[in-house]
Every structure is written in C-alpha cells, then in structure tokens.
C-alpha cells in the first residue's frame, strides 16, 4: 500500500511565499513574450537559460543542492508556483506544448537550472514539453495517458541516454484529488533487498523493451543496479523490464517488494513542481477516474540532462532532440 502525503504538509517541500511568487510571475511574463514564443526554438531556449539565473535565491539554492545530491528520496518538491488555468485539459493522444504559455515558461525556467532540456525524436514528436493527461480509450495503458495504476519505472528504461531528471509541473489535479505521483528511491529500497538479490541485480540478466510512448527502439540487456554498491543507480521498469533467467526473476521480485514497501504517493495540486532524479528514483502513478470534461488532471513534463555534451553525436544541429 502506498502512503498518501499532502505535498504542502510534507517536510522537504519548498513552499514559496508571496514575494517569491510575484518575482517568478514577472520572470514568466517577460520570458513568455520573447519571440518567437516557442519552447522548442533555440532563441527562446537561450533566453530561458539566461532568465532562469534570476529565479528567487531559495529556488536556485534548492535546485543546485538537488543537482549535487538528490537526498534520500531522490525527489525535489517546490509548491506554490504561480500557475493559472490555461483553458481546458487537452485530451488527445501524444499532446505536447510548443507555445511558450505561462506554465510551459515556468517549467522551462525552473528546470534550466538543473541542466539542458532534452526530448527524443521517437517520443511525442520530439517536443521538449509534453502534456501528461488522461486520454479516452487509453485508460488501461501502461503510459502516462492511462488512469489505472502506472507501474513503477525509471523513464525510458531502454535508453542509455535516458533523462537524468524528470520534471512534472501540476496545472490541475483530478476531480477527486486522488491521483498520486508515486515515487520510491533505490536509496530507501536497498536496505530491504537481500545481498544475494543485490548481487544478481548488478549483473546483465535483464532485458528492457521500449515503453508504449516510443515509436521504436532497441531491447537492451542490462543490469538493474550499477555504480557504488552502497548507493547504486537503478534501471528498471516493472512493466517493461524482463528477467532472463529464474534467478534474475526472483531478484527482480525481491526488488519489487522493497520498492512497494517504501513508495509514497504525492498528490499534486496546481503550482506544485516535482523533479525526480531518474538515476536513483522510480516513479509511477496511482489510479484515478477521468471524466474527459476539460477539467481532468493535467501535468506538464520536461526531461533534463546534466551533461549535454555527452549526447552531441545524437543531437542533429546541436539541438535538444536526441535521434
Ligand atoms: O502521471 C504521473 O503522475 C506520472 C506519469 C509518468 O510516469 C510520466 O509522465 O513520465
Ligand atoms: Fe514516467
């Protein structure tokens, strides 16, 4: 069972005050008017990068600290960001936000201090900012368009160059305030995984297939745990990672139990930003009931890489989209 937490009451969430909100609103207003007012455009992105240096000091400190060390739960929460309704929640499949709307601008501003925003040509038409919304007919899909529980995963498990950070800004929660972004870090789960299972999880005995949001992709064989034995990175998607032998299956089941024991649901409200460190923390989502009336749950999402140079060979024209 996941524990439900009110993000505003939770220690560790940075809750902005009125003056900080007003400062951010001014930044957003200026940046969203910068031509060509398109998030995916290099000129606009360069302006966003510059302006992001002027965020309130507490926000800059929080982002910088998180980049250095994501803490025990590998998750950063900033509450009270200035978000206003921007019309009805989209309901079409593969919905993205290319216009520099206020919320898109706000998200770009915040995450630009973590690194560079990236997207993948094979996913959501390569748009840098994506809408996370329930889509009619996709209720049972293991994707962010569904509304049944979304299994715990690292983002884009099949890719070597998966995001370092996954950022999600809430514009609107579901009608019943039930949907929770579910998070669990390997830092919290590892003590519950036995030494033999840890050893197996560190071996290349698992194969991952691309999630349904990807048009195509490889099926790499890989280890689930890598790096420091006492503080490893994790690479698993419980819907798309498959054990290659019986021992690997047992170890994966052990990890799954450990993740379930520590996972937490963050019920987000408008103006809450969560950044998940995709190297140490899994995320998923609890169930909710969409109504498709234009008032459904609506998050906007952006991926970030800390080291842009590392992927230069995969980014035509030195852009932000990996091919
Ligand atoms: O809907 C959510 O809270 C998370 C969905 C998700 O996994 C994603 O957008 O990457
Ligand atoms: Fe995800």
Automatic annotation (TrEMBL):
Q: Which controlled-vocabulary keywords does the entry list?
A: Iron, Metal-binding, Oxidoreductase
Q: Which Pfam families match?
A: TauD
Segments forming domain TauD/TfdA-like: 138-302
Q: Which family does it belong to?
A: Belongs to the clavaminate synthase family.
Entry protein name = Clavaminate synthase family protein
Give the species: Kitasatospora arboriphila
């Amino acid at each position: 069972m996941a524990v439900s937490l009110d993000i505003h009451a939770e220690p560790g969430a940075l809750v902005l005050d009125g003056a900080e909100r007003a400062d951010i609103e001014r930044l957003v207003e200026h940046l969203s008017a910068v031509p060509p007012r398109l998030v995916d455009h290099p000129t606009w992105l360069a302006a966003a990068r510059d302006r992001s240096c002027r965020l309130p000091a507490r926000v800059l400190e929080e982002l910088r600290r998180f980049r250095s060390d994501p803490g025990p739960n590998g998750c950063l929460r900033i509450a009270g960001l200035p978000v206003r309704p921007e019309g009805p929640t989209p309901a079409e499949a593969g919905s993205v936000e290319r216009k520099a709307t206020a919320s898109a601008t706000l998200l770009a501003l915040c995450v630009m201090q973590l690194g560079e925003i990236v997207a993948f040509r094979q996913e959501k038409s390569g748009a840098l900012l994506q809408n996370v919304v329930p889509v009619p007919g996709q209720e049972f899909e293991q994707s962010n368009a569904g509304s049944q529980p979304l299994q715990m995963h690292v983002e884009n498990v099949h890719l070597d160059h998966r995001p370092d950070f996954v950022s999600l800004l809430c514009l609107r929660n579901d009608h019943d305030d039930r949907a929770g972004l579910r998070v669990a870090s390997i830092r919290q789960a590892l003590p519950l995984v036995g030494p033999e299972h840890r050893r197996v999880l560190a071996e290349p005995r698992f194969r991952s297939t691309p999630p349904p949001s990807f048009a195509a992709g490889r099926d790499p064989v890989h280890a689930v745990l890598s790096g420091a034995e006492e503080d490893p990175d994790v690479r698993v998607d419980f819907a798309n990672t498959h054990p290659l032998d019986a021992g690997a299956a047992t170890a994966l089941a052990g990890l799954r139990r450990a993740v379930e024991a520590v996972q937490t649901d963050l019920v987000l409200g408008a103006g809450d930003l969560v950044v998940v460190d995709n190297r140490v923390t899994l995320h998923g989502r609890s169930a909710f009931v969409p109504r498709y009336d234009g008032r459904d749950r609506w998050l906007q999402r952006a991926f970030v890489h800390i080291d842009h140079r590392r992927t230069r060979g995969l980014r035509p024209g030195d852009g932000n989209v990996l091919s």
